[in-house]
């Protein structure tokens, strides 16, 4: 059933994230306040009928499940006009539907991306953990291809440098006192990893790959969504998957040993160096944890830091 255009309000997760993130800036908050009008504009321009806003949705975009003029289902993704749509479309167009959602239309400058419709409420997290990890690893391996010949995508070195800079800034804040030793270790690991990068061909990486970003589909069982693509070594990409189902992992007896086994198993299954995977996992978990703390999400932030410390 179609919804009325006056119900195109952004999900609360998106509102909370952009509202709490000082790095979002005034442009992003202005975009958020204008989002219902922006959505209506794209629905009209592309002749789309809205069905529902996807909830809880993402933290940096809004997805509206729609029907195209011929009745074909699709998903309209709206993001701030900050370049993320252009990068996402570049990766999705390069994959061309191979293990990733297929793009249908794009206006990168306007932050609008029309995607094929997947089963938005069914991700790999609906499967038992072992089966989900197997499917996740297989899908990720198929995404690892050579990047487009001419591209402007960020590199692992560039993106991790920005994260390291943020970590150093957060480290100095009063609430970060207990995490400073871990932050120092994470930054040191990152510096060593980038200084001694492996001699492997550059790979197009998903950037934020985890089980929740792999949805059930009709033309194949599972397709990846929501890349934040970059180019570099595969261990960086795999590090996000290592910490999947973090709550369950940390609640179980022998969590530290289980976390290290997960690193080893994923490294072996996708033929990446286990030590480099551990290093990138510590760095990315520490960066994500400190960001959550900076946004006031203490529970999630502390879990991520605990996980990084276990490794």
Task: Give a written overview of the molecule.
By secondary structure, the chain is of the alpha+beta class. The chain has helices spanning 12-20, 25-45, 84-95, 129-143, 156-171, 180-195, 234-242, 246-251, 255-269, 274-294, 298-310; strands at residues 49-53, 62-67, 73-78, 103-107, 112-116, 119-123, 154-155, 203-205, 214-216, 222-224, 230-232. Strands 1-2-3-5-4 form a 5-stranded antiparallel β-sheet, sandwiched between helices. Strand 4 (103-107) and strand 5 form a beta hairpin. The longest helix is centred in the first third of the chain and has 21 residues, at 25-45. The protein is globular and about 55 Å long.
Low-pLDDT runs: none
The main sheet comes to: 5 strands, antiparallel
Give the overall average pLDDT. 93
Helix content: 40-55%
- Write out the strand line-up for the largest beta sheet, numbering strands in chain order: 1-2-3-5-4
- Shape, principal axes of CA atoms: globular
The fraction of residues in strands falls at: 5-15%
Radius of gyration: 19 Å
Protein name: Aminoglycoside phosphotransferase family protein
Organism: Streptomyces hesseae
Pfam family, one: APH_6_hur
InterPro entries: Kinase-like_dom_sf (IPR011009), NH2Glyco/OHUrea_AB-resist_kin (IPR006748)
């Amino acid at each position: 059933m179609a919804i009325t255009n006056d119900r195109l309000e952004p999900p609360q997760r998106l509102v909370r994230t952009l509202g709490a993130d000082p790095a979002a800036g005034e442009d992003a908050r202005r975009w958020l306040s204008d989002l219902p009008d922006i959505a209506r504009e794209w629905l009209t321009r592309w002749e789309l009928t809205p069905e529902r806003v996807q909830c809880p949705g993402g933290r940096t975009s809004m997805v509206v499940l729609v029907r195209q003029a011929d009745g074909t289902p699709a998903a309209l993704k709206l993001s701030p006009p900050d370049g993320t749509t252009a990068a996402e479309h570049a990766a999705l167009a390069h994959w061309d539907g191979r293990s990733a959602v297929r793009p249908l239309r794009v206006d990168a400058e306007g932050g609008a991306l029309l995607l094929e419709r997947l089963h938005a409420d069914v991700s790999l997290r609906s499967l038992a953990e072992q089966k989900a990890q197997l499917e996740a690893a297989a899908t990720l391996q198929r995404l690892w291809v050579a990047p487009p010949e001419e591209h402007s995508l960020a590199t692992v070195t560039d993106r991790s440098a920005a994260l390291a800079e943020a970590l150093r800034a957060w480290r100095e804040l009063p609430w970060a006192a207990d995490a400073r030793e871990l932050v120092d270790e994470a930054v040191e690991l990152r510096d060593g990893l980038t200084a001694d990068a492996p001699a492997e061909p550059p790979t197009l990486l998903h950037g934020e790959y985890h089980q929740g970003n792999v949805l059930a589909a009709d033309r194949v069982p599972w397709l990846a969504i929501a890349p934040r693509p970059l180019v570099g070594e595969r261990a960086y990409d795999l590090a996000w998957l290592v910490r999947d189902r973090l709550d369950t992992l940390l609640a179980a007896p022998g969590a530290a040993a289980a976390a290290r086994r997960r690193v080893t198993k994923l490294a072996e299954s996708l033929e990446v160096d286990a030590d480099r995977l551990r290093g990138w996992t510590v760095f990315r978990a520490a960066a994500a944890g400190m960001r959550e703390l900076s946004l006031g999400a203490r529970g999630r932030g502390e879990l991520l830091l605990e996980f990084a410390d276990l490794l």
